[in-house]
């Protein structure tokens, strides 16, 4: 998809009554609801950045409707963010497999192992200068 094609897409960010923020491609709307394709939730990561994650990670469903009464506000996202949304939403075409689900403890243990490896590699590569 060319950048100019992405600019023409009606990709919007929604702030919902329950506090969630999602981004999705708007397909249509009527008096009571909005149809969106491949919604991603906006997730703030520990480093202060943002990630776009599938709204329903365990489903291959692509089309959703949101009742307008559950929407606080919605805006079209900036053109430079549209590319990030398209990439995130098209990579997430398959639901998460049960074997890929990790607990916080599992992820923390993996990260600790990673840090231990990094520290070990750095201590081996340090050169002593006299």
Overview in brief:
This protein is an alpha+beta fold and 130 residues long. 32% of the residues lie in helices and 33% in strands. Strand 2 and strand 3 form a beta hairpin.
In words, what does this structure look like?
By secondary structure, this protein is α+β, with helices and mostly antiparallel strands. It has one domain: SH3 type barrels (Roll). It has 3 helices and 6 strands, in the order αββββββαα. Strands 1, 2, 3, 4, 5 and 6 form a 6-stranded antiparallel β-sheet that branches. Strand 1 and strand 2 form a beta hairpin. The longest helix has 22 residues.
Question: What is the topological layout?
Answer:
Layout: H1 3-8, E1 11-16, E2 21-29, E3 33-44, E4 50-54, E5 63-67, E6 71-76, H2 79-91, H3 104-125
Find the structural class using helix and strand composition.
alpha+beta
End-to-end Cα distance, whole Å, is: 57 Å
Shape: elongated
Could you say what the CATH architecture is?
Roll
Task: Write the CATH fold name.
Answer: SH3 type barrels
User: What's the domain count?
Assistant: 1
The proportion of residues forming helix, as a percent range, comes to 25-40%
Keywords:
single chain, 130 residues, alpha+beta, SH3 type barrels
């Amino acid at each position: 998809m060319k950048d100019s094609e992405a600019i023409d897409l009606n990709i919007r960010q929604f702030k919902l009554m329950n506090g969630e923020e999602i981004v999705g491609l708007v397909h249509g709307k009527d008096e009571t609801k909005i149809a969106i394709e491949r919604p991603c939730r906006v997730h703030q990561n520990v480093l202060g950045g943002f990630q776009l994650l599938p709204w329903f990670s365990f489903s291959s469903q692509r089309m959703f409707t949101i009742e307008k009464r559950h929407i606080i506000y919605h805006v079209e996202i900036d053109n430079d963010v549209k590319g990030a949304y398209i990439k995130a939403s098209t990579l997430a075409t398959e639901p998460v497999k049960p074997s890929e689900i990790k607990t916080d403890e599992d992820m923390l243990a993996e990260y600790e192992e990673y840090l231990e490896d990094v520290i070990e590699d750095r201590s081996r590569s340090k050169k002593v200068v006299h």
